[in-house]
Design goal:
The structure holds three protein chains of three kinds.
Chain A (H helix, E strand, L loop, with lengths): L9 H24 L31 H24 L1 H4 L1 H23 L7
Helix pairs in contact in A: 2-4
Chain B lengths: L4 H23 L3 H21 L3 H26 L14 H21 L9 H4 L4 H12 L1 H22 L10 H11 L22 E2 L5 E2 L5 H6 L6 H13 L5 H11 L1
Antiparallel strand pairs in B: 1-2
Chain C lengths: L1 H6 L15 H33 L15 H10 L11 H17 L9 E4 L2 E4 L8 H22 L3 H32 L4 H7 L10 H14 L11 H4 L9 H26 L7 H4 L10 H24 L5 H30 L7 E4 L2 E4 H38 L1 E3 L14 E3 L5 H5 L8 H6 L1
Helix pairs in contact in C: 2-10, 2-12, 3-10, 4-5, 4-10, 5-6, 6-8, 6-13, 8-10, 8-13, 10-12, 13-14
Classes of the chains: A mainly alpha, B mainly alpha, C mainly alpha.
EC number (chain B): 7.1.1.-
Membrane topology (chain B): Multi-pass membrane protein
GO molecular function, one term (chain B): NADH dehydrogenase (quinone) (non-electrogenic) activity
Chain lengths: ~120, ~270, ~450
């Protein structure tokens, strides 16, 4: 794209466009190519032969357990986001960065240990 | 400042997409549609960062926002109710006006703050990316902004604490394992081999069809508690009749059954 | 090492040079990679069914075409001609969008995989790689993160119970294992000093990273199975529990998109493992030495890359042929309580080893077996070994104590005769069997010592 870099993101866009085009085309083609035979039972939710479960008022709900998983995921995700530039630039930065990083990891580990100790990592 | 042809083309394609996503976030009636609109806006923003050669920032934008934050958001809205739509009823009186007032105040403060910002002379991308984009970001994080970086870890601890307080229920007794349950069954002497499985017939084997006891009556216990409560236990009469017919055809029936059938025929 | 040190300031950026690649050549290469992926997917589905057939002592599909090679194609055509069912309760827009997202996102990541050396193509000198950027490896993770939307939305939009559960499970599973995967990659970045794939391959000239980052490799291989929802971690579509999981309500080509996405994802994670740990398109050590590297680089790279890629595919199939599905809580425990903490500790260890190698912890060197090692490296490795030993000792002590307690509890149990009631019954908790005398040893005649009997036998 310019003189600074010898690489570019354009091929990535080409490739993504080809993949997306193929996926959209296939999904559309499937709807057009197949037969259409209406059958009421066919359009109901599939539950292995029993009558479909009635949907709860306002939709079904999921266990709050998943909220904790998502939150822990964010915490570790942010930790690893800091680890990437640290790893890449490690050679240029030296000992100070290593000490910083160890402190950071230890602090986050406190949160992890707390969640483990309270039983937040148990699935039941 | 000049903008290349490819870059402006990207802008005119992706820009409206980001705006459409942001508008969907505001105006979509279903919470999940709003979430997907927001994800679109975030991903397109990441693409813009990459196009402006802030590559690390761009990919992190996609990585963290699309991956983590949106997952959290999806889980939360699923918690509220999968199909729930926005309700426009005020639950607290005057809530809407108070909200508008606070929003206007925030906007005033922000605009005042940004209006006072002074720009230094731009250093140029060539210098910023001299040692590579990622290393440049690393030098800033672990050099100039080291305190902000370390403070982030404290923020993460707070997040973990908050999540635990909101979403975790302490377990008071140890969880019963599979082994515990089986020991309990043996001790109590009831259903020692476990509950009976639902019926499996030549023409039907859904979980709502009860198994048959030796005397031919349906075994209620073989149906899941939920289905029994919903009153969805299937009937077996038609199935047993089919079984008898088939047995008759293949000549594999007891003498008693054969005589009763002969009586029926007569 | 000295050449690397000279390049240290610029290791961020790719070594592969795309300067001589005009845009139309990129387009041609993009098409070629796309076709490569499609053909490989067609082949691997056939391969999987044949190999699993062998493992289960049956032939597998062998009718359509030579050796049944066209089976997948026939299945694809059949799927296209099936009715496309949209359930009544489905959210129409998302129900359409989900398979398109899953299919499209699966393809993006392969663009940054180096598949060979630099070659002449249509009069231009270009690397056998679509493109490379300083953040190439992160791009794979980011795209995988977006790809999960396909699964979550498929589960949500179906308006049915099993798909919703499958979608939730799958997203929780993918995000749990993505952390361990991301952390495992940090060790590789520490060694290579870059996230660009061509730079990482270049840095493996001396030694493939599977050796110095062996633990990362193990964690990566486990997590890549978890990420792609494959057996033994295919809980999102465990047919014994959730019928089909998130794709229960999908039919026709929409279902095919999920299927295709899963297999393309398998290729992507395998290709990334090849790139990061097995030297990418580099020839195996023995062969690389032949004829001054004449079998290394250029088009030869493509051969080695494909061989390594298919070794991983065989591994996937082998796993599916031999392991049963794990339980959900066991799966999450492995991810959160084993993989994440151990990988974090491993990353810190690697950081210290690297610091010692780079001389951050003192410059003195020790000569050992004719090679110079920094004193600090040896010290750090000794510390780690010591820590491992101490941990093993504690673990062993704990085990011994537990076994002793068990024995004690057993000794307190009441002895029962299993045959007391006429037919054998197992012991209840708090009881134990009377050990019967070993019937065989009692019945066996005393060993004959008389040498004369040998002759008698004739």
């Amino acid at each position: 794209m310019n003189g600074l870099t010898s690489y570019s993101y354009a091929p990535l866009l080409f490739f993504a466009a080809i993949g997306a085009g193929f996926a959209v085309f296939s999904v559309a083609a499937g709807a057009l190519a197949g037969p259409k035979r209406y059958n009421r039972a066919k359009l109901e939710a599939y539950e292995c032969g029993i009558q479909p479960s009635p949907h709860a008022e306002g939709g079904g709900r999921v266990p709050i357990k998943y909220y904790l998983t998502a939150m822990l995921f964010i915490i570790f995700d942010i930790e690893s986001v800091f680890l990437y530039p640290f790893a890449v630039a490690f050679e240029q930065m030296g000992l100070f960065a290593l000490v910083e990083m160890v402190l950071f990891i230890l602090t986050v580990f406190v949160a992890y240990a707390y969640v483990w100790r309270r039983g937040g990592l148990e699935w039941d | 400042m000049t903008v290349g042809g490819a870059e402006s083309a990207l802008f005119w394609i992706a820009g409206p997409l980001a705006v459409a996503g942001a508008l969907a976030l505001l105006f979509a009636r279903k919470a999940v549609h709003a979430a997907v609109g927001m994800a679109t806006a975030m991903i397109v923003l990441g693409i813009f960062y990459i196009a402006q050669q802030a590559e690390f920032l761009g990919v992190i934008q996609i990585f963290v926002y699309s991956g983590a934050v949106m997952m959290l958001f999806l889980f939360v809205i699923m918690l509220i109710g999968v199909d729930s739509s926005d309700s426009l009823v005020e639950t607290i009186r005057g809530q809407r006006w108070a909200g508008l007032l606070l929003a206007a105040g925030l906007a005033a403060i922000t605009i005042a703050g940004i209006g006072k910002a002074a720009f230094g002379t731009p250093r140029g991308l060539a210098e910023a990316n001299k040692d590579g984009n990622v290393s440049g970001a690393a030098r800033l994080i672990f050099g100039d902004y080291v305190w902000a970086f370390e403070a982030t870890s404290a923020l993460l601890i707070t997040a973990a604490l908050g999540a635990m307080l909101l979403a975790h229920r302490e377990r008071l007794t140890p969880k019963a394992t599979q082994a515990d349950w089986s020991r309990e069954r043996i001790r109590s002497g009831e259903n020692v081999a476990g509950l009976p499985a639902p019926g499996v017939y030549a023409r039907h084997n859904a979980v709502d069809t009860p198994a048959l006891l030796p005397d031919g009556s349906p075994a209620e216990l073989s149906i899941s508690r939920v289905l029994r409560a919903r009153g969805q236990v299937g009937t077996t009469g038609a199935l047993t009749q089919v079984t008898q017919e088939i047995e008759h055809e293949v000549g594999d029936e007891s003498d008693e059954q054969a005589t009763t059938r002969k009586d029926d025929d007569a | 090492m000295s050449t690397l040190a000279a390049l240290a300031a610029t290791t961020d950026n790719p070594v592969a040079d795309f300067g001589d690649t005009p845009w139309w050549l990129s387009l041609v290469k993009a098409l070629l990679v796309f076709v490569f992926l499609l053909i490989n997917t067609l082949l691997v589905i056939w391969f999987e069914r044949r190999v699993i057939g062998r493992m289960q002592q049956r032939p597998g599909p062998n009718r359509a075409g030579p050796f049944g090679l066209l089976q997948t194609l026939a299945d694809g055509v059949k799927l296209a001609l099936k009715e496309d069912i949209v359930p009544k309760a489905a959210d129409k827009i998302m129900f359409w969008a989900a398979p398109a997202i899953a299919g499209a996102m699966a393809f993006v990541s392969f663009a940054i995989i180096p598949m060979g050396g630099t070659v002449w193509m249509f009069g231009h000198k270009t690397p056998l790689q679509l493109t490379d950027t300083p953040i190439a490896t992160l791009l794979v993770l980011a795209v995988a993160g977006v790809g999960v939307y396909g699964i979550v939305l498929a589960g949500w939009s179906s308006g049915s119970t099993y798909p919703l559960l499958g979608g939730l499970r799958s997203s929780a599973q993918v995000i749990s294992y993505e952390i361990a995967m991301g952390l495992a990659l940090v060790a590789v970045f520490l060694y290579a000093g870059s996230m660009s794939t061509s730079q990482i391959v270049f840095a493996q000239n001396d030694l493939w990273y599977i050796v110095p980052a062996f633990f990362s490799f193990v964690v990566y291989v486990i997590t890549m199975v978890g990420e792609t929802n494959r057996l033994p971690f295919d809980l999102a579509e465990g047919e014994g529990e959730l019928t089909g999981g998130f794709h229960t309500e999908y039919s026709s080509l929409k279902f095919a998109m999920f299927f295709l996405g899963e297999y393309v994802n398998m290729f992507t994670v395998s290709a990334l493992a090849t790139t990061l740990f097995l030297g990418g398109p580099a020839a195996p050590p023995g062969i690389a030495a032949i004829g001054d590297g004449m079998l290394n680089g250029g088009w030869w790279g493509l051969l080695w890359f494909v061989v390594k890629l298919w070794l991983f595919m065989f591994f996937f199939v082998w796993l599916r042929g031999s392991l049963p599905r794990v339980r959900y809580d066991q799966f999450m425990r492995l991810g959160w309580k084993v993989l994440i903490p151990t990988t974090l500790v491993w990353v810190v260890m690697v950081a210290f080893i690297r610091a010692a190698e780079l001389g951050f912890l003192g410059d003195s060197k020790v000569s050992l077996l004719g090679r110079d090692f920094p004193r600090a490296t040896l010290f750090i490795i000794a510390c780690i070994a010591l820590a491992v030993l101490v941990a093993a000792w504690f673990y062993d002590n704990h085990q011994v104590k537990r076994r002793a307690e068990l024995e004690e509890a057993r000794a307190m149990d009441e002895e029962i005769d299993p045959f007391a009631g006429g037919h054998p019954v197992p012991p209840l908790p708090g009881q134990r069997l009377v050990e019967p005398p070993l019937a065989l040893s009692a019945a066996r005649p005393a060993p004959v010592t008389d040498s004369g009997s040998e002759e008698n036998r004739g």
